[in-house]
Amino acid sequence: MEFALGAGSLRIADGMDENSIETGAAPPEYVRHRPVRRASAAAPHAVRFLRRPHGRRPKYCRPDTTSAYPTWGEPVTTTRLSARAAIASVTDTGSFTELPAPRGESPADGPLAWAGYDDSRARAAERTGEHESVVTGSARIGGREAVLISFEFGFLGGSLGQRTGDRLEAAYEHARARRLPLVSLIATGGSRMQEGMLALTQLQRVARQSVLTRAAGLPQLAVLRDPTTGGGWATLGAGADVVLALPGAQVGFAGSRVRPADADPAAYTAEGQYAAGHVDAVVPAAQLPGTLAHWLRVLAAPRSGGPVEPPAALAGVRPPATGWDAVRQARDPGRPHAEAYLDAYFELRLHLSGDRAGGTDPGMLCGFGLREGRAVAYAAQCGTATRPAGYRTAARVVRLADRLGIPVLTLVDTPGAANDAAAEHAGAGAAIADTFAALAAATVPVTTLLIGEGGSGGALALAAPGNTWVTPDSYFSVIAPELAAAILKRPPSAAPATADQLRIRPQDLVALGVARGIVGPMT
């Protein structure tokens, strides 16, 4: 039979009823996949429950690690693992130790006396072997200890109730007591309807615990499984420091049944959230253990006691003779840019993407890396006009590094901030102001290297006061020489002479006290 679901429908296999769909769990002889394939234009979100082959007992199909498909059934994009299978898929074998469940008593049929709630819980427990929608504990990932929270979607759709809140709170407290990072493997439909407002208020508990953990200087990582919607996305997911998502996962505050009928389905996917700046990376399941291990390695690495050294100059050029020579060298398309400097500087680096406000800027590279075994954060302009989203992403990374006690490296290279109408609508001034503020407030040391063009305030926003270095093929100016000449009502031919008057060469910047020195080549 068919069950209405927004613009699409659910096909319910024999022996299932609407309540099975509503709780988000399949009976023991079925496995749930999402998405399968588009059944028709009228039902783009169809979900199919497939009967398990005779004699096989897994509650959820495990993926075949040698292909993009499970070992049986139809091709899928996302396979819903149980909470414990998700933990096992990313942790070192045999390292997981479960936290004891906090004691708590609930009245019959829950706080609202919702008829049949106890029976629904009992059926969910029988299906999944769990007594709540989350499993918590500690484990090693790539040899490094972390606290894990893993959602059991088969238990009432991974929904959050009071007892869920108890377990989440205990996990956060354990992470702070042991000074461990917290990794959440999320698969939830949101708050549990059968517990009403008391379920919804668990989001406040989670938010409070996240704030306390943030204040303790401990990193929080989230993996968005399928689905991650409602309050789970708005707290554990979007509130994490590093947000990773599995390909094809449904991700969004609005679940599939409460969206507008004409909503763009791509907006509610891991890929859509990545494009909008809300997810740092979409990571295939096979790569997830290694990616998490890299993040824990970097975030647990020693910190340097002072400012990090600036990168060495990569271009074999001498400081320019004139101001206009400085401009020409910096604008040379063949000179080294940010990516080359980052690759030469770090033995491992991990990218963070997005401003968490709906935007990304490919002209700003941000993240964390290892330099001689020590953790360093970075924000690097790539030679383009920096968008507001780029500034907000840089400010986000600087503040995260400051909270984690990790020194920062910034690479300055931009003709200036983007000044088109779209940039103004996106809040260019506010974004630049926020970047200035993030660097001014940082308690960790910040090192800056000017590697190309330093175009006015859009470049200065990323420059460390008192610890800025320059390469021989760079310049820094209050305004581009051509624009300065135009403002002074000089002909375009006067731009080179104006460049000399502005004193923008690397050696001029050192003499003026704007830069500490000119970096030499690699030795």
Characterise this structure:
The protein has 523 residues and is α/β, with parallel strands linked by helices. The protein has 18 helices and 20 strands. The chain has helices spanning 18-22, 83-90, 117-128, 162-178, 196-200, 202-215, 230-237, 270-275, 288-299, 323-330, 338-345, 388-404, 421-425, 428-441, 456-460, 481-487, 495-502, 506-512, and strands spanning 2-5, 8-11, 30-34, 49-51, 78-79, 97-98, 134-141, 144-151, 182-188, 220-229, 242-245, 251-252, 281-282, 348-352, 364-371, 374-381, 408-414, 446-455, 468-470, 475-477. 48% of the residues are buried.
Percent of residues in beta strands = 15-25%
Shape designation:
elongated
Specify the helix fraction band: 25-40%
Assembly level:
single chain
pLDDT averaged over residues: 87
Enumerate the spans where pLDDT stays under 50 for 5 or more consecutive residues: 1-77
Structural class: alpha/beta
The largest sheet, given as strand count, sense and whether it forms a barrel, is: 8 strands, mixed
How many runs of DSSP E, i.e. beta strands? 20
With helices defined by DSSP (H or I, 4 residues minimum), what is the helix count? 18
Instruction: Report, as a whole number of angstroms, the end-to-end distance.
Output: 72 Å
Rg calculated over all Cα atoms: 27 Å
